[in-house]
Each structure stands twice: as structure tokens, then as C-alpha cells.
Amino acid sequence: MPRWTRRDLLAAAAASALSRPVLAKEAPPARVAALDWTLASTLMALGVTPVGVAEQRLYADWVGPPALPSGVIELGLRTGPSFETLAALKPDLIGINPLNESIRSRLEMIAPTFSNSIFSPERAPLDRCKVMTRSLADRIGAQSKADALIERTDAILAAVRQRLAGAAPRPLLPLNILDARHFNLYGRGSLYADVLRAVGLVSAFDGPTSSWGNAAVGIEALADLPRCDLLVIAPVPHAALRMFEGPSLWSKLLAAKGTRRIMLPAAWAFGDLAAASRFAVDLADAFTAEQARPL
Question: In the UniProt record, does the keyword Acetylation occur (predicted)?
Fold first, then answer.
């Protein structure tokens, strides 16, 4: 079984983004604009560069590599895009999510829409990523690319499971730091929890979660957590980084439990198969490089 590393993952992503369909029956890539970051990332993974993406600076911070090409047009806010810019791009399709439903009719005056439906009542986002990937590929004529992407993702997760066998004896708590006193924890129904399960690990958070599998909590909630190690996923606000540089309420709450922190690069929490693979590989790299250290 191949040993996937972050370098392997980025190389595969770059190759996918640069290659084009080879089957004659597949149509050329459509002109797709993406208000939804998950769909933008999936397009890139399918070898299709979106003509426009919303909030690109934040996309780079939260979604991670591969970077959007310089020619991709900025569309404005994800929930309040520039309709003039969208219309000027003359897209064949606009990628949205449920937060765009209030403007869907206006968008469809410009082009048909495709909605990201990963986070659904089934609360199985990793499986839904595969369904969404195939549905999007059907719309843009990239079916063979979708099959290859799904197969590659399954292979990466299987390889990471093998790499991590016996490496993490305690449950892991995926989180984003919002500020020095507030966090997003990820449990049931989250992409992170699904990936942890796929590689043979367990999410430590079993409390109530939103439709997207997250729970926004204050720092005091950390005192009630079971013994676990923290997966701190980028980006981390600069002010919050000071929590790790000396005595803090954070440290006092967790030191008694011997909690470790594992710092991971960005992998979009509400993302796609590319995010799932990146999160898994980064986690394996962190453990094998012994980057986990006591608080």
C-alpha cells in the first residue's frame, strides 16, 4: 500500500488541476463560477478552474492548497456576491450552497445553479462528498475525473489508516480557534469526524452539533472534555497564538489531563474530498514527525 505524504497529496492535486479529460465522450470543462468554497475546491480537484470564486483571500486561509490561479475573478461575498461581475463572466453554471437560497432566483437569471448538498439529514458528509462530486461531474462532463478522484481519496484514507495504526491511543478533538476564548469543536456529522473514523480514530466530542457537525463553545467548555488530544486546525488568529506561548487559562484547563496539541494546516471543515484527503495526510504527517507536544 502506498505511503501518502502531504507532498504526494499536493503533487496529485496539481496533476489533477492541470490535466484534462481524455475520453472523447466527455465535454470540455464548463465555465463555472463558485460562491461556495467546497464546490470551488472540487472543481479544482476535477481539473476545472472556476472562472470566479467568492472571498478568495479567506479561501486561501481556510481551504488551503492548491491555490486558485491568478486569473480567477473575485466575486465578492459568498452570501452577497457582485451580480454585475457574475453576469459579465457569462458562466454556464454557478455553484452555491443552502445559504444562497434567498438569492437563487436572481442568480438563475444569469446561469443555472448547482447546490452543494454535502451536509444533509443523513449526517454522513464523507459519503455525501462522493455523491456531490459525481453529481457535479455529471453537470460539467468530468465523470472519469470524478471516478479517479474518489478512488484516489479512498486509497489515501486506507494508506493513512495503515500509517496511524496504534499511533493515537486517545481520542482526538478537531477544533478551530475563533479567538482567545471561543472555539468550534467538531463531532458527529462533521467531515473531520468522518475522516477520523475512516482512518481508525475517534473524535472526542460527542456533544450536540449543528447541521454542519460543529459546536461553537467558550473556553470554559474545555474543562469538561474527556481525556483527549487536540487537533488545532489552521488558521489560528494571531492573538490566540499567545495562548501557547506561556501560562494561560487554556493551559491551566488542559495541563492536568496531559493533553497534547497537534497543529495542522488548513483543511476546510465544511469541505470536499480534497479537504478530507488533506486533513488525513496532515494528521498522519504530524504524528509520524512527532509534532505533537505537551501543552
Answer: no
Q: At what angle do helices 191-198 and 273-288 cross, to 10 degrees?
A: 60
Distance CA 117, CA 100 (A): 12
Q: For the chain, what are the domain ranges? A: 6-156, 169-294
| pLDDT for residue 237 | 87
Collect all residues with Cβ–Cβ distance below 8 Å to 56 and sequence separation of at least 6: 68, 72, 74
Give residue 199's pLDDT: 96
What's the CA gap between 50 and 32, in Å, rounded? 5
The single-letter code of the amino acid at 26 is E
CB 145 within 8 A of CB 30: no
CATH of 169-294, one of 3.90.180.10, 1.10.10.10, 3.30.70.270, 3.40.50.1980: 3.40.50.1980
pTM, two decimal places: 0.86
pLDDT digits (tens, 9 = 90+) for 88-126: 999 999 999 999 999 999 999 999 999 998 998 888 999
Give 137-140's long-range contacts (Cβ < 8 A, gap of 24+): 137/46, 139/30, 139/93, 139/114, 140/27, 140/29, 140/30, 140/32, 140/43, 140/46, 140/48, 140/93
Low-confidence ranges of the chain (pLDDT < 70): 1-29, 168-169, 243-250, 253, 256-257, 289-295
Other C-beta atoms closer than 10 Å to the C-beta of 71 total 8
3-state helix, strand, coil in the chain (%, to 5): 45, 15, 40
What's domain 6-156's superfamily in CATH?
Nitrogenase molybdenum iron protein domain (3.40.50.1980)
Q: Do domains 6-156 and 169-294 have the same CATH topology?
A: yes
